[in-house]
Specification:
The complex is a heterodimer. Chain A has 2 domains: 220 residues, Rossmann fold, CATH 3.40.50.300; 132 residues, OB fold (Dihydrolipoamide Acetyltransferase, E2P) (Beta Barrel). Chain A starts with a strand and ends in a 7-residue tail after the last strand. Chain A is of the alpha+beta class. Chain B contains 19 helices and no strands. The chains are: A alpha+beta, B mainly alpha. At the A-B interface, β6, α3 and α5 of A face α7, α8, α11 and α12 of B. The structure holds adenosine-5'-diphosphate and magnesium ion.
Chain lengths: 367, 437
C-alpha cells in the first residue's frame, strides 16, 4: 500500500532560525520523490517532520489524507532510513531486519521466515546470521532498506542513504533502489545533495535552498527549464552571462550581456517573469555550445581556446571570452576531431536560443 | 649527551621511586602476612606460614564486620546503579542550556567530604525518626540501613559518571530508528539502550561495591552500633595489630587484582568489538568476520588462563604455607631459646670478668660489627616492639637456662665459645642490657 504525502504551509523553526519556510507540496502515492539541495538547506529537517521526530512550528502534514499532528514516529505509516543507517550493532542481520515485527510481538519462526523473504528481495540470501559489522557498506545499505520495509510502511523516507558509498557502488545502488521501489510500489521520499541521484531515480524532484522549495518538477523539467538562477546553477553545469533585458517576446528574451547580445528562451516554470530593463542571467550548458557554422546568425560568441580535458567519451574545452570573468566551458562528444583544435586559437561559439535560458537575477548556488 | 643520559637515569630513578612509593607498602604488608611472627614484620623472618589466614577467618569481630560490609555493598549497588543510570539518562535528555547546572548539582556529593555526608545522614534520619516517634530499634537508627543510604548519596554519583561516559558513545539515531520502526519507548529502552549499557552496568556495580566496601569516613558516623570491616580494622589498629590484618590485605589485594584483570580483558574485548564495528561501518569492510562471534563466547582462553594461574598460585602458597611450618616453628623456638640461653651465659661471663678484664670484653663485639650489617640494627629495634620479646625475657629470667641445658647440650657448648661472633650477637647484647636495666 502506498499513501500520498501532503505538506500544507509547513514552517519549521529552531528558535529564531527558520529551517523550513512555507513548504507547500503534494507527493503522490507510489511515487519516487526527491528533495535535492545543498547540505544545510533543511532537507533532513523536513524528513524528520514527516517521520514525526520534529513537530512543525506551523502547518500540517498529511499522510494518506490523515493529519499527522500528535501522532508519534512509532505510530506513523512511515519508515526512515537514516543518513548513517543506524543499524543495531548488537544484533544479527536478521534480528535487525525483523525488529519492527519483534516489537509487534510476532514470534521468532514467523520473523525468521519474513527475514528470509526480505533477504531474498535485497539479494542477500543466507546472510541472516551475520552481525551487521561483518557486512560491506553496500550490503549494510540493503539491510537498512529491508529493515525499513519489514515495518510495511506506506511511505519510505531515505536520508542520503548512498552518500557513504563509493562511486561505483552508489551508481549500482541507484538502479537497485529504483527497482526495489517499483517492486514494492510504496511512496519513496529520497533526500540527496547529489543531482545525479535525484535525476536518475526520481519521478519528481523538489530543489531546495535555505529552507525554501525553489522548484518542483520531473528531472527533464528541472534540467531543461530551471525556474530560478539557483536551480539552473545547482543542477548540472552552466555558463552564465549577466545582462539587461532588451525585449521579451513569445517566450524568448533578448538580453544584452557582457559577451554580446544573446537570445534565450524564458521558461514557463520561471518564478519571476522577465521584464524589459531587468537585470537577467543567460545560462548555456556546456553540452549545448558548439563551434559556430557560417549560417549561424545569432548568439555567436568570440572565444580563445585556453585548455582541454579529456574524459574518454567527452572532451571538456575551456575558452577565454572577452567580457566573461570565468572561462567558458564546452563539452564535446569525442568524435576524433581533437587534432583540429589548437590552444590559443580564436574561434566562434554558438548556443541555440532554445537551449539558452534567460532568468531574472537572483541568488546562485555556491561553487 | 651526558646530560641526556643523566636525564634518562633521573627519569628512571623517579619512576622506580614512584612505584616503590606506590606499591612498597602493599608489597611489604603482603609479605608480612606469610611470616609466622606475631607482629607484622619482614625481618627477622621466622617461618613461611599461612596461619594468619586461619586466624583471620576465625576472628568473629572481623568476620561480622566483613558480613556487614558485604550486605552494605550489595545494598549500595542495588540503589546507586539505578539512581546513577537515571541521573545519566536525565543528563542526556535535558536541554543543553541547563545541562552544566544539572551536572554540577548531581556531581556535588562527590566533592562534599564524606564526614559531612555521614553526619548529615545521621542527623537527617534521626530527625525523621523523631518526627515519627520511632524507637531506637526502628529503621531510622539501623546502622546498616543508614550506611547504605549515606554511602549511596555519593556512590550513585560515581555510577552516574560511568553511565555518562558510556552514553556519550551512544548513537541517538539508534533510539530513533527503533521508535521509527514502531517500538514503544519502553521497548526502545529495553532492546536498544539497555544492551548497549550492559558493560557500563557491570562497571558501575563493581565500582559502587568497591567504593562502599572501602569506605570509612562516612560509615564511621552512619554505622552507629554495628560495625563494618573498615570500622573493625580501625578499632583493631588502635588496640594493636597482628599479621591477620596483613592476611586480610593480601586477600583483598589478590581479589581486586583478579577482578581488575577480568574487567580489563572484558573491556578490551568490547572495545575491540565496537571499534571493529564502527570501522567496518565507516570503511564498509569485512573487519569483523573474524572477531565477530568469538567475543560472544562465555569463557575464553584468557579468562581460563587467569583462573588457572590464580588457583595454582593459591594452591602452592597454601601447600608451602602449611607443610613443614610446625617443624620450622619449633626450630625457630629452639633458636630463640638458645639465644636466650646464650644471653644468660654472656651475662654471667660479663659479671665474672667485670673489673678484671674490661678491655677484652669491649673488643670482641667491635670486630664482628661490620659483618653483621644493617639488618641487625633494625632488627634490634623492631625486637623491642615484638610481642614475643617480653615472653622470651621472662623465660630467659626463669628456667630457660635449665631447659636448654637438658635439651641440647652440644649446641650449647659450641655457642658458649663461638657465640661472640654470631650475627645476632649485637641484638642479644642490646636485649641483654635492656633486661638488665
Ligand atoms: N535541532 C536543531 N537545532 C537547531 N538548528 C538545527 C537543528 N537541526 C537542524 N538545524 C539547522 O537547520 C538547518 C538545516 O539542517 P538539515 O535539515 O540537517 O540540513 P540538510 O539539508 O543538510 O539535511 C541547518 O542549518 C542546521 O544547522
Ligand atoms: Mg541531512
Amino acid at each position: 500500500m502506498s499513501a500520498d504525502v501532503r505538506l500544507e504551509n509547513v514552517w519549521i523553526k529552531f528558535g529564531s532560525f527558520v529551517a523550513a519556510r512555507e513548504i507547500e507540496l503534494t507527493i503522490k502515492g507510489g511515487e519516487f520523490f526527491s528533495f535535492l539541495g545543498p547540505s544545510g538547506c533543511g532537507k533532513t529537517t523536513i524528513l524528520r517532520a514527516v517521520s514525526g521526530f520534529l513537530k512543525p512550528s506551523e502547518g500540517n502534514i498529511l499522510i494518506g489524507g490523515k493529519d499527522m499532528a500528535g501522532i508519534g514516529p512509532n505510530r506513523r505509516p512511515t519508515a526512515l532510513i537514516f543518513q548513517n543507517l543506524a543499524l543495531f550493532p548488537l544484533m544479527t542481520v536478521w534480528e535487525n531486519i525483523t525488529f519492527a515485527l519483534e516489537v509487534k510481538g510476532v514470534n521468532a519462526t514467523e520473523r525468521r521466515k519474513k527475514a528470509d523473504e526480505l533477504l531474498e528481495l535485497i539479494a542477500l540470501p543466507g546472510q541472516g546470521e551475520k552481525m551487521v559489522g561483518e557486512l560491506s557498506g553496500g550490503q549494510r545499505q540493503r539491510v537498512a532498506i529491508a529493515r525499513a520495509l519489514a515495518a510495511e510502511p506506506e511511505v519510505l523516507l531515505l536520508d542520503e542513504p548512498l552518500s557513504a558509498l563509493d562511486l561505483k557502488l552508489r551508481q549500482h545502488m541507484r538502479t537497485e533502489l529504483r527497482s526495489i521501489q517499483r517492486r514494492v510500489g510504496i511512496t519513496f521520499i529520497y533526500i540527496t545533495h547529489d543531482q545525479g541521484e535525484a535525476l536518475t531515480m526520481s519521478d519528481n524532484v523538489a530543489v531546495m535552498r535555505d529552507g525554501v522549495i525553489e522548484q518542483v518538477g520531473d528531472g527533464t523539467t528541472i534540467y531543461d527549464a530551471p525556474g530560478s538562477p539557483f536551480v539552473a546553477s545547482f543542477v548540472g553545469e552552466n555558463n552564465l552571462f549577466r545582462g539587461t533585458v532588451e525585449s521579451v517576446d513569445n517566450g524568448m528574451a533578448t538580453v544584452t550581456t557582457t559577451v554580446g547580445t544573446l537570445l534565450a528562451k524564458t521558461p514557463v516554470t520561471a518564478s519571476n517573469p522577465l521584464k524589459v530593463g531587468d537585470t537577467a542571467y543567460v545560462f548555456q550548458r556546456p553540452e549545448s555550445l558548439r563551434f559556430a557554422k557560417p549560417d549561424n546568425q545569432i548568439n555567436r560568441i568570440k572565444a580563445t581556446i585556453v585548455n582541454e580535458e579529456f574524459e574518454g567519451n567527452f572532451w571538456q574545452v575551456y575558452f577565454e571570452v572577452p567580457g566573461s570573468t570565468k572561462p567558458v566551458k564546452m563539452s564535446m562528444v569525442n568524435d576524433g576531431s581533437s587534432s583540429e583544435r589548437r590552444r590559443g586559437e580564436v574561434v566562434e561559439l554558438v548556443c541555440e536560443p532554445e537551449l539558452s535560458v534567460a532568468l531574472a537575477e537572483g541568488p546562485l548556488a555556491a561553487e | 649527551m651526558i646530560t641526556d643520559r643523566l636525564g634518562k637515569y633521573a627519569v628512571l630513578l623517579f619512576v622506580v621511586m614512584f612505584f616503590a612509593y606506590l606499591f612498597g607498602p602493599l608489597i611489604i604488608m603482603s609479605i608480612t602476612a606469610f611470616n609466622s611472627a606475631d607482629f607484622p614484620r619482614v625481618s627477622p623472618w621466622d617461618c613461611f606460614s599461612v596461619e594468619w589466614f586461619d586466624v583471620l577467618v576465625n576472628d568473629d569481630k572481623l568476620m561480622d564486620g566483613l558480613r556487614n560490609s558485604l550486605i552494605i555493598g550489595i545494598g549500595v549497588v542495588a540503589l546507586s546503579v539505578p539512581i546513577g543510570l537515571a541521573g545519566a539518562l536525565m543528563l542526556m535528555q535535558i536541554s543543553p542550556r541547563v545541562r552544566p547546572w544539572y551536572y554540577t548539582i548531581v556531581v556535588s556529593p562527590i566533592l562534599i567530604p564524606g564526614v559531612v555526608l555521614g553526619i548529615s545522614t545521621l542527623i537527617f534520619w534521626d530527625r525523621l525518626g523523631a518526627m515519627f516517634n520511632a524507637n531506637y530499634e526502628s529503621i531510622f537508627y539501623d546502622g546498616i540501613f543508614l550506611t547504605i543510604v549515606g554511602q549511596t548519596t555519593f556512590i550513585s554519583a560515581y555510577s552516574m559518571l560511568v553511565f555518562i561516559s558510556r552514553l556519550q558513545r551512544f548513537d541517538p539515531a539508534l533510539e530513533e530508528a527503533a521508535l521509527d520502526l514502531g517500538a514503544s519507548h519502553v521497548q526502545t529502552f529495553r532492546k536498544i539502550l539497555l544492551p548497549f549499557l550492559k558493560p557500563a552496568i557491570g562497571s558501575a556495580a563493581v565500582l559502587a561495591f568497591l567504593a562502599s566496601f572501602e569506605n570509612y569516613n562516612t560509615t564511621v558516623f552512619t554505622i552507629t552500633s554495628e560495625s563494618t570491616l573498615t570500622t573493625v580494622l580501625a578499632s583493631k589498629v588502635r588496640y594493636g595489630i597482628n599479621p591477620s590484618i596483613s592476611a586480610l590485605a593480601v586477600t583483598i589485594v589478590v581479589l581486586t587484582l583478579f577482578a581488575a584483570a577480568i574487567m580489563e580483558i572484558k573491556k578490551r574485548r568490547t572495545d575491540a568489538f565496537e571499534k571493529a564495528i564502527s570501522k567496518a561501518v565507516i570503511e564498509g569492510t569485512d573487519a569483523l568476520s573474524k572477531l565477530g562471534r568469538k567475543s560472544n563466547r562465555l569463557i575464553d582462553p584468557a579468562f581460563a588462563m587467569i583462573i588457572v594461574i590464580f588457583l595454582a598460585g593459591l594452591g602452592t602458597a597454601y601447600y608451602s604455607g602449611t607443610v613443614g611450618v610446625d617443624e620450622c616453628k619449633t626450630s625457630v623456638k629452639e633458636a630463640k631459646k638458645l639465644e636466650t640461653q646464650r644471653r644468660v651465659d654472656e651475662r654471667r661471663k660479663k659479671q665474672m670478668f667485670e673489673g678484671a678484664q674490661p678491655g677484652t670484653q669491649q673488643a670482641a663485639p667491635n670486630t664482628t660489627a661490620p659483618s653483621t650489617g644493617k639488618a641487625k640494627g633494625t632488627e634490634g629495634y623492631q625486637g623491642i616492639f615484638a610481642p614475643t620479646n617480653l615472653e622470651s625475657q621472662v623465660k630467659g629470667d626463669s628456667g630457660a637456662a635449665n631447659d636448654a641445658a637438658t635439651d641440647d647440650a652440644p649446641a650449647k657448648g659450641t655457642e658458649g665459645y663461638q657465640g661472640i661472633f654470631a650475627p645476632t650477637n649485637l641484638e642479644s647484647q642490646v636485649k641483654g642490657e635492656e633486661s638488665s636495666n
